[in-house]
């Protein structure tokens, strides 16, 4: 339901009209959901990582949660869309998710939380990569 | 999927073990999802409200998005659970969502975004109210 | 410089004109700075708390950092000012800062970071209390 | 005082010991303060921009406030320091601040808030640039 309402609102905001290039809204919606899921997974993993004494993992998860939340919000603000800022932020989010996934992956065998967090990071990284590819295509079109 | 993974991670974190009182995790999961949906709706409504020249609405939506994100994150950190802080924050979130819903409701007829945002605020307010009731029951038990 | 520019911008925004009751802007500026300092102290303490294995402390500091950031932002948005929401959030921030200060205070002897974080929490709690008192006076005037 | 306490805490955390390369802590402290000032300026400018009907400006300021807050927090978490993520995020912050400064600069003559916000964005962009340069030097050393 969450995702559906966000998608509906996005469409009702008629983004094309206010600057954001015509984009595959389905793909952006998937990216928004992946960022939201990754923020949530990282927030929980940071809290749990501490319990298990995995300091580096918890610290990276806190970073990753903040990066994903910022990424998500930027996609939800078409009015001030700036191509270069969006692309740079998508790259930052991909790099952060990749690093966090690697770190969480190290503990995936002993921590179910880390295993699921790494999956959320991977999904978010891929969704940002798809967005970036779509934006490159839109620029060239 | 988003909600499912969050619920699974919450369970794998075995919250009871680290301080948070035994709570209806289903209810908390619903509250987390309602906060997340409300943050997203308010972030979009703030961006759109500006487009329509609804200044007060947009400003309240920015406040409400931040409050809901903070509320959501607090519920995702059982390790440092503090009953009084959680209750005070739930009250703040309810008050904020109620005020934001009233303001968005004023524009619901002319703005589909505002109409959906008001609905997300109402749902979040109710979910926080249920959490608060459950916590009171847990305290008395 | 940070604080000065914020104060200047606050004045240039002429808050009274847009709904927020005439308030002691100096006091609000102090509260904004206290929230910002507390967010920063808590963010560092959460990162460091993990290094020292103080899990509950780190988790509470993450909560407190988010609450203080939201509190600060609300004070910086006079356009959508809502008395009840502001008061409830000030109470939530006070309760959170008080709990976090207590927890950090437990480690103040062995951790300089915790000692300073507890001080930032106390200062933030007091600044919020002053704001709340001022708002009560403004309501009665 | 705010900046001083942050600097003291940073030093007490002995960052070198936990992964972050030996860096000019003075420069990082300046970058942290610039991010904090920029988040504050952008949050106020977004609220005020709406009052003046400058939609694109307000939306970009909301993005920039979130990016700067995330940037600031990442620098405050040395435990999970990851060189590639930090560099990508510094680039995203620079790009965002540059775009936001350009947009606010368009309204600087008629809005004192926009004029000051553009200054805060420029200062933040430069501070991030210095950090990036220092990190490149540290990598090569």
Structural description of this entry:
- With 141 residues, chain A is mainly alpha-helical.
- Helix content of chain A is 79%, strand content 0%.
- Chain A has five helices and no strands.
- In chain A, helix 3 runs antiparallel to helix 4 (83-105) and helix 4 (83-105) packs antiparallel against helix 5 (112-140).
- The longest helix of chain A has 29 residues, at 112-140.
- The interface between A and B is large, with 40 and 40 residues.
List the helices and strands and how they pair.
4 copies of one chain form a homotetramer.
Chain A: H1 2-12, H2 25-51, H3 55-75, H4 83-105, H5 112-140
Helix pairs in contact in A: 1-2, 2-3, 2-5, 3-4, 4-5
Task: Please give a handful of descriptors for the protein shown.
homotetramer; mainly alpha; 141 residues; 79% helix; 5 helices
Q: What oligomeric state is this?
A: homotetramer
By secondary-structure content and strand pairing, the structural class of chain A works out as mainly alpha
Strand content of chain A: under 5%
The secondary-structure element order of chain A is HHHHH
| Biggest interface found | A-B, 40 and 40 residues
Q: Could you give the count of β-strands of chain A? A: 0
Low-pLDDT runs of 5+ residues of chain A are: none
Count of runs of 4 or more consecutive helical residues of chain A: 5
Biggest β-sheet description of chain A: none
Rounded mean pLDDT score of chain A: 87
Instruction: Provide the gyration radius of chain A in Å.
Output: 16 Å
Distance between the termini of chain A: 34 Å
Shape of chain A: elongated
Helix content of chain A: over 70%
